[in-house]
Write a structure and sequence with these properties.
Layout lengths: L7 E2 L2 H10 L2 E8 L2 E8 L1 E3 L7 E7 L4 H4 L5 E7 L3 E3 L16 E16 L2 H16 L13 H9 L1 E16 L6 H12 L4 H15 L1
Antiparallel strand pairs: 1-9, 2-3, 2-6, 4-5, 5-9, 6-8, 7-8, 8-9
Helix pairs in contact: 5-6
Organism: Photorhabdus laumondii subsp. laumondii
Protein name: FMN-binding negative transcriptional regulator
Pfam family, one: FMN_bind_2
Length: about 210
């Protein structure tokens, strides 16, 4: 990923936050079937190693676990909300016309070693961890323990666990930091007029970037 210095994000805690706030990642690998990508929900263990450990699972019928050698490096891509930036919002449009469109977004690339786990106890613990994570905040959260044991045992037979140890994190926050304050404030106002909720999220991120 090309990252201009002004957009570079190296703070591990910020990158971890982005992963946890956007847990549906894209696991990209090059295996015996060639290049492939799987969209999977991940949980992050921040405390195992310095850069963290990602956990997920795939259907046993997914050829991924048969096509990738565990010594291979893989990459997981996480992306936050994004929004188109219209030049019509910029004050310079009516001054000298020297404006152009852009795009605001945040992204993290996690380079990892991959390990496939075919162990019922690990998979059950992973189910519980991921459910507790994704159900948190719901008014009536569901728990794995509510399901019959034989049902969960059956599910375990149909999945393969994946554990990814992160070796490198690349972070990019393209939040218009290269623009002057007047442009950035105008962009925030422009984004707030949009109906897409992602635009409002990006407006909030740009405002936070100004404060920080």
């Amino acid at each position: 990923m090309y990252i201009q210095k002004v957009f570079e994000e190296n703070r591990i805690s910020v990158l971890h936050d982005l992963i946890e706030q956007n847990p549906l990642g894209t696991l990209t690998v090059y295996g015996s079937y060639g290049l492939s990508a799987d969209h999977l929900p991940f949980t992050l263990d921040r405390h195992g190693l310095e850069l963290g450990v990602l956990k997920t699972h795939i259907a046993r019928g997914n050829p991924l676990h048969k096509s990738v050698v565990e010594t291979n490096e893989v990459m997981v891509i996480f992306q936050g909300p994004d929004a188109y930036i219209s030049p019509s919002w910029l004050p310079r449009r009516h001054i000298n016309g020297r404006v152009q469109p852009s795009w605001a977004y945040t992204a993290v690339h996690a380079m990892c070693s991959i390990k496939f786990i075919d162990d019922g106890s690990w998979i059950k613990a992973h189910f519980e961890q991921s459910v507790n994570c994704f159900e948190a905040g719901l008014p009536d959260p569901w728990q794995v323990a509510e399901a019959p044991k034989d049902f969960i045992d059956g599910l375990k037979q149909h999945v393969v666990g994946i554990e990814l140890t992160i070796h490198n994190l690349l972070g990019k926050r393209q939040l218009m930091q290269q623009r002057n304050i007047d442009d950035r404030l105008a962009i925030i106002e422009g984004l707030r007029t949009q109906s897409d909720p992602r635009a409002h999220q990006v407006a909030k991120q740009i405002a936070q970037a100004i404060e920080n």
